[in-house]
Amino acid sequence: MHIAEGILPVEWAAAWAAPAVAGAAVGLRRLKARTEDEPSVKSLVALMGAAVFAISLMPIPVPVAGSVSHPAGTPLAAVVVGPGAGIVVAAVSLLLQALFFAHGGLTTLGANIVSEGVVGSLAGFAVFWLARRGGRSLFWAGFLAGLLGDLAVYFTTAAELSLGLFPLGEAWPRLWAIFLSFLPTQLPLAVLEGVLTGGVLRSLAQLRPDIASRLRVSSGFVETPARASRVHRVRHWWQGAGHPGRVAAVGGMLLLGGLALWGLVWAIAVSTGGWVGLDEGVMERVAAERGRAAWTPFINTDVGDLLLFVFFAGALGAGGVIGWLSRGLRGMEPGNGGPVEGTTSSKRPRSLRLLGAAVAVLALLAVLVWALAAPGWSLGPVSGRSVGRVLGVMAHPGRQQLLSARGGDAVLFAFMASGLALGIVSGYRLRARRLRGRRLRIRLPHLHIHDVSSGDRLAWQSRGLGGVDARAKVGAVVVLLVANLVVGWWLSLGLMAGALVVVFGVQRVKRPVVLIRMAPALIVAAMLVLLRGFTVPGREILAIRLPGLAPVAFTTDGVLAGLELGLVVLAGVLLMLVLGLTTPLPKLLAALRWYRVPELLIEVGMLMYRYLFLFVEETGRMRQAQRLRGPEVAWGRAMGGLSSLGANLLIRSYERSQRVYDAQRLRGGTGRTARSAQGLRAVAGDHEEGGGRS
Amino acid sequence: MTGPWGWQRISGAQLRLEMVSYDYPGGVRALDGVDVQVGPGDFVAVMGANGGGKSTLLKLIVGLLHPGAGSISVDGVAVSPDSFSQIASMAGYLFQDPNDQLFCPTVAADIAYGPENLGLSDAEVQVRVAWAAETCGVADLLERPIHALSYGQKKRVALAGVLAMGPRVLVLDEPTASLDPMAEAGLMRLLKTLNEQGLTIIMATHDVDLIPTYAHRVLLLRKGSVAAEGPLGDVFAPGTHLENCDLRMPRIAYLFDIFSDEATRPLTIGQARKELVRMVEHGQLELVPILLRDASRGIAG
């Protein structure tokens, strides 16, 4: 959900900074007030932040979209440390992510704090509080908080994008269009976030009720008997239902949910018109349409729009069925060690029939797509246009616009083909695992310590620019980033050249190091060139005309337009890279202190930096332990495992925060900063100002 | 070794624990009527099985916990919530896990944390940081981030942070746990030097082999009560049922058993130590460290 550097116009970047600053200020005041009663809460906030930072950098794969994303994390943080401190957690981790990994950005920091921090924390906490007041259990209250909080974050992001990139009159329908386009990837993630938030809270209350009540997570909950018996009835039914019953129940629920979602999508799409792409892909595309550039630091998720997604998913499903069935056939081949368990020869005709049906469905789907993709095509009474009209929403005029903007129908077919291939391979492998009596493999996502520490090490060892005062560097980079947004391509070119000279000439950073960090930006820049090359009309370099399909043309004007945008992207990334590779984070934070960033924020940031590495190592070890003890886990158990892992991380954070606080006050800090603390100054016989409050 | 802020010799603090009892919140008794005195400049090893009450005792001394019954005083100042800062300025506490203790981003910042809280000027803080880093052998690490240090280095930096406060008694919770043999020896030598300067040291440890070389006195805890207390020789004398506290005799005692002649057996550990020191001084046992290692393999292995 991070809005990337360079995407919001200057005026909107400034406009979002105001509520962000206000939210952070309120959060800091709340945190400070809470620190008075419970001084160790500050270290807990920092440790929570480190955990959220580490977890949110672990890629959670979204297989259907081929993309990688992560939950917001703030609803859980808000429930655990309070909504005010939740905003602080988000603000600090967004700042560190921008400085450390170039994830998000500096000019877009305000907008990101508003969506993830302010809205995520407040919405998550409010939902949790209301649900608890309504007598929901910890799990369900946490689930709702995670689900709705996550969706609220993305709704806000959509609002920020629509306001920033479209005229005010267009903003409302665009908001819905952008929000909808987030849903294919974000809805599963929001459900995942809900399950994890609820699971972590429940595990916490089970494992350490004392901590749960001290954090005011579990207080004041009354479980109503009627609800409890309902839960019991459902569980009883589930246990007795047997395999077909469960499959039918889950399938039915998925079908109903899918239909409801489709209805919603259809209704809103018809009322607003137009579709856009996914997550950060959306931001890039929307920005590109408005003549602005964006970059993403890790993985570019520009995988297309809702229609592409639907066809991709359809092909994936069909491919999956084909793969599954064909592996079933192979299991009975002679000379293959005889019949494999679960496939008897009597099943063979059935498998063949199913395979035939699947192929037929796929062929039908292909015909439909063809019909839809080529409205001019006709065969007797049936024409592409008429088939499209039957399907209503797919004949929407927005589709034509979109497909041509995407480089023609070729993109659609490429999506279908890749979905099909992926489906066949996945289905085949799933069946093979099943036949071997093994279950779906789920592993904890993992961030290697090396990924975190390599940039950090470079920054500490930096010579040359590394010696320049961090305050000057921060100021210069911010000014240049803003200039990069408002001035023309020539400035971007100059900045890029300058940054390259600094990185290779002055700093003598090794090429692979820079290339690894630049790779995502280079890919985005290349995609911008391609996208613009296919979409901007002008002198054609290459034109592909297939019968019945919209023509695909690549133009010089498009390439130039793409290059212009690409330059802004690369210049922005390189500027951030120069700052990140020459200045260690503690020095950056110290520089921000000079710029009058509140002390508490800096302090939490410093603590977060200190414990971030420990967390990455710790989660890495936990993951290894999990793998060693049981690599094959069913979905349900894996989620339970993740929840208890999260709860354990939380417990460890809590306990460590107590010890860190002890260590601080033993050396004269009463949870306050060294320089400003009264601490032990009062030692010489005078106890009034002493640091011994406990 | 001279301190940076003018002292020639540390004036070690005196500790007095009178009938101290402590119950965990669940009602489990951790300490029961512990009555101990530690003189200035003493080096006391607190020993006992896991869960014997060692860490609780140490936390009570620095005021992180407060006894349910009895009283504790450091140099006459009663340990209480009100006197926390005063006690903290006299007693330095080294956590078992240095990751708990090191919360600043860099080595220099962490060592400076305590002195800054003492309200010293920048120059004074710098002098103390330099001295503490030099003393603990981490002077070349000052600008490094904490997470780039090895475990042994973290331990030394944590100790430097405590020493920079200028403590008069050092309370250490298993300082040698998880250290490699060289780091362990280095740390213990440093503690011994500080002790010779007059610093009072109380150290919880499981490592019975370290004790004879460094500690003067041993406090043996068993299920929250004092099982034995006194000079090394008395506590490790034959007849003390160390196995009741899940301990054994130091390997140096077995070693001496090998060297000594039949007539002088059985020896107390105190006698053995004296005898070994005499033999080393006379050049008869130059290879003691190596022999110690081999003997520990041969006997205990």
The CATH topology label of the largest domain in chain B is Rossmann fold
Radius of gyration of chain B: 20 Å
CATH class of the largest domain in chain B: Alpha Beta
Strand count of chain B: 10
Overall morphology of chain A: globular
**Helical proportion of chain B?**
25-40%
Task: List low-pLDDT spans of chain A.
Answer: 59-68, 272-283, 292-305, 333-345, 389-409, 442-446, 671-694
Number of helices of chain A: 23
CATH superfamily of the largest domain in chain B: P-loop containing nucleotide triphosphate hydrolases
Give the DSSP E fraction of chain A (strand runs of 2 or more residues). Answer: under 5%
The H/E string of chain B reads EEEHEEHEHHHHEHEHEEHHHH
The CA-CA distance between the termini of chain B, in Å, is 40 Å
Give the DSSP E fraction of chain B (strand runs of 2 or more residues).
15-25%
The CATH architecture of the largest domain in chain A can be given as: Orthogonal Bundle
pLDDT averaged over residues of chain A: 71
Mean pLDDT of chain B: 82
Q: Which residues of chain B form runs of ≥5 with pLDDT under 50?
A: 286-291, 293-301
Topology:
The complex is a heterodimer of chains A (694) and B (301).
Chain A: H1 10-37, H2 41-56, E1 60-62, E2 67-69, H3 74-81, H4 83-101, H5 109-133, H6 138-165, H7 168-207, H8 209-214, H9 225-272, H10 279-289, H11 306-330, H12 348-373, E3 378-379, E4 382-383, H13 384-390, H14 397-405, H15 409-435, H16 449-461, H17 470-486, H18 489-506, H19 511-535, E5 540-544, E6 552-555, H20 556-582, H21 585-594, H22 599-629, H23 635-666
Chain B: E1 15-23, E2 29-38, E3 43-48, H1 54-62, E4 69-74, E5 77-78, H2 84-90, E6 91-94, H3 98-101, H4 107-117, H5 122-135, H6 151-163, E7 169-173, H7 181-196, E8 200-204, H8 211-214, E9 217-222, E10 225-231, H9 232-235, H10 251-259, H11 269-281, H12 288-300
Parallel strand pairs in B: 3-8, 3-9, 6-7, 7-8
Antiparallel strand pairs in B: 1-2, 1-4, 4-5, 9-10
Helix pairs in contact in B: 4-5, 4-6, 5-6, 10-11, 10-12
